[in-house]
Design a protein that fits this description.
By secondary structure, this protein is mainly alpha-helical. It contains 9 helices and no strands.
């Protein structure tokens, strides 16, 4: 909701001390804003590699566990994807988003292949999820600079190869995903 001109003028008319008090009260109520300010002001944006590594380590620990079913695997992948999304919301890390989602998807095939190897009614949800995540990350990748796209080319093509070789293939065809990606 936009601030009215009258309210804006009244806020700007407050003393510095009153503004500081009000600002701190507002920040206290918004966890995401606090995280953004910690990243920008306290960490000076320098902790980006560590934050990416933390997420990658979480994924590595996750993929060492046996999920019991493709449904549980998908649930956990969604949770990890939500953490990646939160990371991007806090850090504005577009490069990291592509890198981490590609890692999440490729590692699924690498470490949990039995759950995505064949298309069955049990793997249907996970297969669809992987195909849709692949489609979404390809769209984000194409918005990046061609030099950056080139850095991900091998991982993307490896992912597309697997998507078409295993359970997500019917959804990949339905979504019109390319079998290979080239940089233009």
């Amino acid at each position: 909701m936009p601030i009215s001109k009258e309210l804006k003028a009244a806020i700007l008319g407050l003393t510095r001390e009153e503004k500081d008090k009000l600002l701190l009260r507002l920040i206290n109520k918004h966890k995401d804003l606090q995280e953004q300010l910690i990243f920008q002001l306290l960490e000076d944006g320098q902790t980006l590699p560590e934050r990416r590594d933390d997420l990658r380590n979480k994924m590595d620990r996750f993929y060492k566990l046996d999920p019991d079913s493709s449904g549980w695997l998908m649930t956990d992948m969604r949770r990890l994807h939500a953490e990646i999304t939160y990371h991007v919301k806090i850090t504005k890390d577009k490069y990291g988003e592509v890198e981490l989602v590609l890692y999440l998807l490729n590692e699924c095939f690498e470490k949990q292949l039995p759950y995505v190897q064949k298309y069955t009614s049990k793997t249907d949800g996970l297969a669809e999820y992987i195909a849709k995540r692949t489609e979404a990350i390809l769209k984000k990748l194409t918005k990046l600079h061609p030099d950056i796209q080139f850095e991900f080319l091998e991982d993307v093509n490896h992912l597309l190869e697997r998507v078409y070789a295993y359970a997500p293939a019917p959804y990949a065809k339905q979504l019109g995903l390319p079998k290979r990606m080239d940089i233009r």
